[in-house]
């Protein structure tokens, strides 16, 4: 049976490392890799099929889904890595206090971290709604945990990922009604040395700052050990379930 994987955000720090780890596994015949600019996808592997996708645009989402559907009927691994925490060009910074809230920044962060991934899954339709084993994993973050939140701040990032986790739970329930072999999870990659975390690495213990390759290796092990009983959960790089 042909096995197909789809990695959204394959030109990002973690996304690129995950694509390489997935290719090394030799488990997939097709590896669809999306980026907003497909020239940034640097793999020459013949299994890689680049797909242009901007999760903030409905037309881009439907075009990308139709493009993938022209190759395959079913996906077996779907990983979505899109995430935004700050963007200097937009004047977007993680908020330290309530007074820093700004509608435009909230909308941008929710659009990339929460709305986009789940509009993407909706557009994938029957490619993820089937009865074969399938794993759908969305990159979340430990800071999305309400139970674990002792510092506050980072309002839009935290809240967008918490809302993302709720949609993960909902999708897990929906798919499990027709496919007991579907596993839908959020993943926390640890603190990883990428563009996203660069401005916030000062206080991080060097032993706890992973390279993208290190984190992708941990996440790959987690993905391979997941069971349908874990569907709906958010799992960290070390395999531990994160408190909602
Ligand atoms: N790094 C960490 O310490 C850390 C910790 C916890 C959670 N995470 C999560 O891990 C995930 C990956 O982050 P990273 O560390 O690899 O950061 P990164 O290198 O900045 O990658 C961010 C990714 O988001 C994509 N993206 C941004 N806006 C998008 C849009 N409008 N449409 C489609 N894709 C968009 C980027 O795609 P382009 O290549 O097209 O720009 C890129 O692939 C994120 O969800 C992040 O929240 C990271």
Present the secondary structure layout.
Layout: E1 4-8, H1 13-25, E2 30-35, E3 48-52, H2 58-69, E4 77-80, H3 103-124, E5 134-139, H4 155-178, E6 182-188, E7 191-192, E8 209-210, H5 212-225, E9 234-236
Parallel strand pairs: 1-2, 1-4, 2-3, 4-5, 5-6, 6-9, 7-8
Helix pairs in contact: 1-5, 2-3, 3-4
Describe the structure.
Helix 1 packs across helix 5 (212-225) and helix 2 (58-69) runs parallel beside helix 3. This protein has 5 helices and 9 strands; from the N terminus they run βαββαβαβαβββαβ. The longest helix is centred in the last third of the chain and has 24 residues, at 155-178. The mean pLDDT is 97. The chain has one domain (4-236): Rossmann fold. Helix 4 (155-178) links the parallel strand 5 (134-139) and strand 6 (182-188). The strands form 2 sheets. It has a 7-stranded parallel sheet with strand order 3-2-1-4-5-6-9, sandwiched between helices. The protein is globular. The protein has helices at residues 13-25, 58-69, 103-124, 155-178, 212-225; strands at 4-8, 30-35, 48-52, 77-80, 134-139, 182-188, 191-192, 209-210, 234-236. It has 244 residues and is of the alpha/beta class. It starts with a strand and ends in an 8-residue tail after the last strand. It binds NADP nicotinamide-adenine-dinucleotide phosphate. NADP nicotinamide-adenine-dinucleotide phosphate (NAP) binds at residues 9, 11-15, 35-36, 40, 53-56, 81-84, 112, 116, 139, 141, 188-189, 191-192, 194-197.
């Amino acid at each position: 049976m042909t096995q197909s994987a789809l990695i959204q955000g394959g030109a990002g720090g973690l996304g690129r490392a995950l694509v390489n780890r997935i290719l090394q596994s030799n488990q997939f015949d097709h590896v669809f890799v999306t980026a907003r600019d497909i020239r940034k996808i640097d793999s020459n592997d013949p299994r890689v099929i680049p797909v242009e996708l901007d999760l903030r645009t409905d037309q881009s989402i439907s075009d990308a889904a139709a493009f993938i559907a022209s190759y395959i009927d079913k996906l077996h691994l779907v990983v979505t890595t899109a995430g935004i925490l700050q963007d200097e060009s937009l004047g977007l910074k993680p908020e330290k206090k309530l007074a820093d809230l700004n509608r435009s920044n909230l909308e941008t962060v929710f659009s990339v971290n929460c709305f986009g991934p789940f509009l993407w899954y909706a557009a994938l339709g029957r490619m993820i709604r089937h009865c074969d084993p399938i794993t759908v994993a969305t990159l979340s973050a430990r800071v999305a945990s309400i139970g674990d939140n002792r510092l506050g701040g980072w309002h839009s990032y935290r809240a967008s990922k918490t809302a993302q986790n709720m949609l993960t739970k909902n999708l897990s329930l929906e798919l499990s009604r027709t496919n007991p072999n579907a596993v839908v999870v959020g993943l926390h990659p640890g603190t990883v040395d990428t563009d996203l975390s660069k401005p916030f690495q000062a206080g991080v213990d060097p032993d706890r700052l992973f390279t993208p390759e290190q984190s992708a290796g941990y996440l790959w092990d987690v993905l391979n050990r997941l069971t349908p009983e874990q569907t709906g959960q958010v799992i960290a790089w070390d395999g531990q379930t994160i408190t909602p």
